[in-house]
Amino acid sequence: MEQFKRTEKEFSFETEILKQGAYINALASNPETAPIYLTTAFNVEDLDDLYDRYEKKGFCYNRNRNPNRNALIELMTYAEGGEDSIICSSGMGAISTTIFSQVKCGDHIVSDMTLYGETIDIFKEVLPAYGVEVTFVDFTKLEEVERAIKSETKILYTETVSNPMITVVDIDGAAKLAHDNNCILVVDNTFMTSVAFRPIAHGADLVINSLTKFANGHSDAVCGSVTGKAELIQKAYRYQVLLGNTADAFTSWLVQRGMRTMSLRIEKQMKNAAKLAKALEESPYVLKVNHPSLMSHPQHELAMKLFGNEYSCGGMLSIVLPDSMEKINLFMRKLNLAHYAMTLGGYRTTLAHPVSSSHYDTPEEERAKMGITLGLIRISVGIEKAEDLIHDFLEALNVYKE
């Protein structure tokens, strides 16, 4: 093979130390695991070569395109069943890029009232400064969504399963409402992932995933994605490049590696979550358990229709304990397997306290409307043996005996 910039001319040591070994000159195609392209740029021979790269959408500069990011784009586009994707530096980067690329001053968004707290912060604190109005309603009641739609409405925004209340939205119905009113439906699918549910197949136009969570699954990479119709994704890509929130090569490589075992992990996590939810519902010390697999869940029938069975209702659940910070602390310290973490979706079971984390900045009155109380604990279920998890939780709950 012809070597790039090959010459017989010899330079000084201080120059050659920069030049020697800079390019792979032996045949190194089709490695078993994709290499990590930790380079900011790719060299070209001349301007003709540069413009050929432009035309073929080849690699020139890392912020615009990177082989590892493109590989993850290909994987996510398949996983969610879309036409194209972008890969962002975080889940919040994916959310903000999606919104900013699809609305302008004077537009209106109808959003679910129960969302990840920082998504709500964008809608309440950032968008009004740019002349975008947001109305919050309960998306489990589509009649409320329909009443909130105006002629200026451009987006209906929801999560498949809400954070942290674990409510379930009728995505088919929301999509019909959106399209009947010339809007797009944006769905955050982080909690369910494409393993359990594909919103695009149910009419969603754009699907967001915080790949930091279940998709990567190892709590070692921060990343996000948006998947959907090619026309909408191209608008988002243009904004993404200008905002500079593209994911780096190593993170993209890590997430792609994590996704290879996604089906194995998430199927186990969902089964564990259903078993744990059932056991916790039977505990006299738990006031309420939120998980769609339970008959007591208000959207149980809808969940069975969307997700198939009780063991496919997601790896996230939340429980309500008595409003005592002292007892909650005792309970957390007593647990051996589950640990507090400001993330979710990893292979180990973790806890979060929404009042102290995801909804810390949400006014108490608004938290109350969502059902987020001091005693609400969000649980991200891991791949431990279900019986071990159940025993550990039930033992720790004995602190409420005292």
UniProtKB/TrEMBL annotation:
Supply the alphabetized keyword list: Lyase, Pyridoxal phosphate
Q: Does the keyword Lyase apply?
A: yes
Q: What cofactor does this protein call for?
A: pyridoxal 5'-phosphate
Q: Which domain of life is it from?
A: Bacteria
Key word Aminoacyl-tRNA synthetase present in the record?
A: no
Q: What is this protein called?
A: homocysteine desulfhydrase
Query: Cellular component per GO?
Result: cytoplasm
Q: Organism classification, top ranks? A: Bacteria, Bacillati, Bacillota, Clostridia, Lachnospirales
Which residues get modified to N6-(pyridoxal phosphate)lysine?
A: 213
Q: Which CDD domains match?
A: CGS_like
Q: Which InterPro entries match?
A: Cys/Met-Metab_PyrdxlP-dep_enz, PyrdxlP-dep_Trfase, PyrdxlP-dep_Trfase_major, PyrdxlP-dep_Trfase_small
State the EC number(s). 4.4.1.2
| GO molecular function terms attached to this record | homocysteine desulfhydrase activity; methionine gamma-lyase activity; pyridoxal phosphate binding
Natural source organism: Anaeromicropila populeti
